[in-house]
Each structure stands twice: as structure tokens, then as C-alpha cells.
Write a structure and sequence with these properties.
This protein has 5 helices and 8 strands, in the order βββαβαβαββαβα. The chain is an alpha/beta fold. Helix 1 crosses helix 5 and helix 2 crosses helix 3. The longest helix has 17 residues.
Length: about 220
């Protein structure tokens, strides 16, 4: 993403996972792991919306960790219909926490990556509060084609969901139907499609509003 981006290879369940880590100028205040859109439709950690999520996190002082799902770029393995991709995300989260065990965890995802981020948050919450995510940012989550789990109750007031009114890939109605029984707010961007063409600056502003800094626990 910039000259300071560090390329990493993390051991995953299907083999090495290609990652890119960016650190803020000062000491990081959180670890933000970001999931990219659908691997079979050109999704990768270098997607412009993924970069926008990362830039918002960096501006808040977060360490950001993007990665390629299995079979994308230099990541080993092959498409696994979402199951293995969630395992990839959990492996990246675990590795990121080894180097920063005290940092709060923030998860972000775009489209299919929104499904993976929500599924990872659900899996982590089931293990108890110690390892749970503290913030969640979902941009146009894939609520129609994937079975996106409900957001853990303790995380709902710290979750930001952003969706374009004219989304041609994931209908806004699908995300509203998913969010409604959870009483989960959805920020709707009028006149905008799935990929936020020409509106990445606005998307970053909305993400900055929803991703407030988190206190770093003491030793």
C-alpha cells in the first residue's frame, strides 16, 4: 500500500498465506485484519476497497494486516466455498496476535470478505471474551449468497455496516433483511453501487466515524 508495507508469509491450514502489513507512525493501538472480496471474481488483498479499509485503520493508528485467501496470489491452496477461507482468516488473526498479543482486535471485510469477517467474529466470540473482536467493519457484506451469521450481541454496538443504495452485486434489501432482526444499523450511501466507484473518499470518512480508537489493555 505504501513504501513501508511489509510482505509476510503466514502458515495457514492449506499452506502459506500471503499477507501485507502496514504500521502507523506511532505505536499501534489495535490490530486490524481485513478480508478481501470473492476469490473467483478477481478479489485480492490489493482491491481498492480493501485498501480504503486499511487506510482508515492506519489513520486511527491501527496496525493493518491484509491477506490473500487460499489460491489467490502467492497463497497456497484452492477455493473452498467459504469454509476454508474463514479458516484462513482465523490463521492470520492468530499469527497477528502472536506479535501483538495485547492489542485489541478489529476485523474488516468487503463483499465476500464481509461474510468471512463476520464468520470469524462469530467463531472468536464463541471462544469467550478474551479473544473476541472489539470492532467490526463490513462494507457491502455478501448477505445474499453467503450465510452471514448474526453479529455477536456484545459486538453489535461496535459494528459499522456500510452499503450502497444501488448495489448491483449484493442487493441492499438482502443486507437490510439480515440486519433487521438484529436491530443492527446500516449506513446507506445514496446512488452508490457495490464497488463505491468515485466514492472511496466518502467511504473512508464513514469508516473513520465507525472505527473509533480502542484503549490498549495494560500489562
Amino acid at each position: 500500500m505504501n513504501a513501508q508495507t511489509q510482505s509476510l508469509s503466514i502458515a495457514g491450514p492449506a499452506g502459506p498465506i500471503e499477507c501485507a502489513q502496514d504500521d502507523p507512525a506511532g505505536a499501534p493501538t489495535a490490530l486490524m485484519v481485513i478480508c478481501h472480496p470473492h476469490p473467483l471474481h478477481g478479489g485480492s488483498m490489493d482491491h481498492k476497497v480493501v485498501h480504503t479499509l486499511a487506510r482508515a485503520g492506519l489513520q486511527w493508528g491501527y496496525r493493518t494486516l491484509r491477506f490473500n485467501f487460499r489460491g489467490v496470489g502467492a497463497s497456497a491452496g484452492a477455493w473452498d466455498e467459504g469454509r476454508g477461507e474463514v479458516e484462513d482468516a482465523l490463521a492470520v488473526i492468530a499469527a497477528g496476535r502472536v506479535s501483538a498479543p495485547l492489542l485489541p482486535l478489529v476485523l474488516g471485510g468487503f463483499s465476500f470478505g464481509g461474510f468471512v469477517a463476520a464468520a470469524a467474529a462469530d467463531r472468536l466470540a464463541a471462544l469467550g471474551p478474551t479473544g473476541a473482536a472489539q470492532r467490526l467493519a463490513l462494507v457491502a457484506p455478501s448477505t445474499e449468497k453467503q450465510d452471514v451469521p448474526p453479529i455477536p450481541s456484545a459486538l453489535r454496538d461496535r459494528t459499522v455496516v456500510i452499503h450502497g443504495e444501488d448495489d448491483e452485486v449484493v442487493p441492499l434489501a438482502a443486507t437490510l433483511a439480515w440486519a433487521r432482526p438484529q436491530r443492527l444499523p446500516v449506513t446507506v450511501v445514496a446512488g452508490v453501487g457495490h464497488f463505491f466507484h468515485g466514492q472511496l473518499g466518502l467511504l473512508k470518512t464513514l469508516l473513520l466515524r465507525g472505527l473509533a480508537p480502542l484503549p490498549v489493555p495494560g500489562p
